[in-house]
Amino acid sequence: MRLFYAEDIKDRQKRYIITGSEARHIYKVLRMKSGDELLLMDQNGNRYRCVIEDIRHGKVYVLIKEKLLPPPSSPVHITVCISLIRSDPMDLVIQKVSELGAEVVQPFYSERSIVRIAEDKIEHRLRHWKEVAKNAAKQCGRPKPIQVLPPILLKELLAQDWEEDLLRLFLWEQERETSIKDVLRSTEKVDKIVGVIGPEGGFTLEEARLLKEKGFISVSMGGRILRAETAAIAFVALCQYEFGDLGLSYDMKASSPVRP
Question: Is the model's pTM score more than 0.90?
Fold first, then answer.
């Protein structure tokens, strides 16, 4: 069932009018009509099963049939810090790590970053990324879009006041002894993870040293050299598999993961 965003739905509200781009998508792109069912999700993550009553004057009028409980959040909060990459691969990262349940994407500039965004273009790019995040949330049914932050320098990233109980990792192709599998399997249950992914050219030795000084553990993703976007997506999937909800079934009525 297709999901769309609603600004605000009050308790016991029986009807809602969908306007703007969401309405246009319903009747122009999807060609939905009266009698078709859809899901609405409000800003608090509440979801409602609705049926279209009428479409007129660019607006979609729906009858609210049932309030559904929101899907549960992942038990692990994952932040993906990625050295800025080209536009299409960056969109892919935001989309896919959102679907996998990461909570934050923090782009940053490192020494070998190829992409640099002009200061006067940052707001435009950020709006675009947030639209990608919004669409990804709609597609996968997560309660709220993933948070995408403005790009910062690597030194600014490292200067942040990281929590002590946070599992801090950075993916480094020059790491020869410690794999991500080693670290994840040997770590007791954690609820917060941050992963730092470098540019296509990798981190410099000095950057790797600074990351280690700040408590980040260097890990290998294996013998193959991965593109930055592939590494970011694989990183989130591995963390969700070990500590999160990847692979668990979900009962919409119970709003909780179902463990075998």
Answer: no
> What residues contact residue 241 under an 8 Å CB cut-off, 6+ apart?
247
- Domain 77-243 sits in CATH 3.40.50.360: no
Please, what sign has the CA dihedral across residues 185, 78, 132, 41? positive
- At residue 97's C-alpha, the angle toward residues 95 and 98, to 5°, is 60
The interaxial angle of helices 122-140 and 87-99, nearest 10 deg, is 40
Select the highest-mean-pLDDT range: 7-11, 79-83, 172-176: 79-83
Tell me the two tokens of residue 77.
């909060």
Strand partners, 220: 179
Tell me the pLDDT tens digit for each residue of 168-224: 999 999 999 999 999 999 998 899 999 999 998 899 999 999 999 999 999 999 988
Which of 3.40.1190.20, 3.40.190.10, 3.40.50.1360, 2.40.240.20 is the CATH number of 3-68?
2.40.240.20
